[in-house]
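Dear colleague,

Following up on yesterday's call, I've attached the two folding results inline so they're easy to grep. Please treat them as preliminary; we haven't cross-checked anything against experimental data yet. The first protein's sequence and structure tokens come first.
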Amino acid sequence: MKTAIACATALLLVAGVTAHGQTLRTRRVMREKLVHTQRILEALTTSNLTVLERESLALLQVTESPQWSEVNTPELRPYTDAFVKAIKDLAESARQRDLDAAAAQYGTLTMTCYRCHKYRKDSRVATQR
């Protein structure tokens, strides 16, 4: 009985992940990405250039991890390329100690996330029709 409940629970979890378009690995990499972007926002609002540069570089490292290859598919490459460019520009602004430019790059960075997630949502809705 416990095995049946465990199997049913596992199936529901897998179905839930599939329905949302994420695997457990992509969920982890997206969560890590979110943590760094939140820290970047905090660094911007507190003018902490050290944290801003560190977190920008940490976010860039996420895109160089093996897990990133799951989201860097040919279909999503324009979005991931724009994301990486925004991170590099943000890190450069932090290195130059230019908070205004960094804030603008943060806006660009978050829009790349939004556009990619919107595309994924819209394509899932279109395939469900």
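Below is the second protein, in the same order (sequence, then structure):
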Amino acid sequence: MFFRVSLAALLLALTGCHAQSEPFPSSSKLAPAKVKAIAATITKRHPNLSAEQHDAVLRTVVRSLDEMVFIEGGEFDMGDFGWPCDRALTELCEWPCGVPLDQLCVITENMEDSGVHPVRLSNFHLSRYQTRQGDFDLFQVIRGKPLSGAEYRDSEQMQDYFSPDKPAPTRYWQEAKDYCLWLGELSGVPVDLPSEAQWEFAARNRGQYVIYPTDTGTLDFGRNYPPREDDWQGMTHPVGSFAPNPLGLYDMAGNAKDWVNDWYDPDYYPNSPLDNPKGPETGVYKIMRGFGINEGEVIMANTVIRWPEAIDQTGYVTTTSFRCSVQSERPLK
């Protein structure tokens, strides 16, 4: 039986109070008129919300847009660009490090579908953080859906797995997609999951030849990546716990993997269009990017690795999450 979470208690945890202290939340990106329009749309789309629920949804939408990072597009070589065979992945050098391109070794073993191909992207936005557990919980409550891992939430031993500021665990690709589209529906902004090309471009600091999606391009455990001495046990960290990459994006590796929009096809990379590729039209698996907390980060936490995943994970996994994007070439306002 699913654990019944008190809606009032959940909303209190999300908002920190029972009632907002001003008519509308302030925004670092949106004009007051835009925030007011979002509030009106929430009232129209969800007419049965209490004032407390309405306030929680409005604050979630506005904060989600404020946390979008505007990324100028450009052209880059997407895929496993290679690394000197005799140099450790953690050993920094300016690519290709004086080595002829045809003598570089692959970064990720057994990834024969990750060949380099040119891609040209338009401007877009990507969320600074992975979607928080608390925000996704609110989305589920509003839709009348059970919370992820609801059957475990009354267990004292499991409480740390479901902190509101940790990445939202997902079971289905579709629920990640639906959450982003919900933000877009309420805000009137084209919110969606990012494409795989957008995710990699952002992880590589606008397509540079960097191995790890960190501020330095390497792993500094405890500063820009979770410390190795952590007693992992499948637990993630609160979003934004470690230094972001140069674009200001947190947890592009080392916390949870991110769903992206694209279907998986091992033959897609060689046939990918140059401009704004969206992935195959159909498929069996969806792509995840990044790397969760686990052993093997030196090999697996790189910027080019791809994970074909079933759209139904058969259970909620703490290291399966997502971040939304805004598919707009102009900055939000």
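For the second protein, one point worth flagging: The first strand starts at residue 68 and ends at 71.

Best wishes,
A.L.
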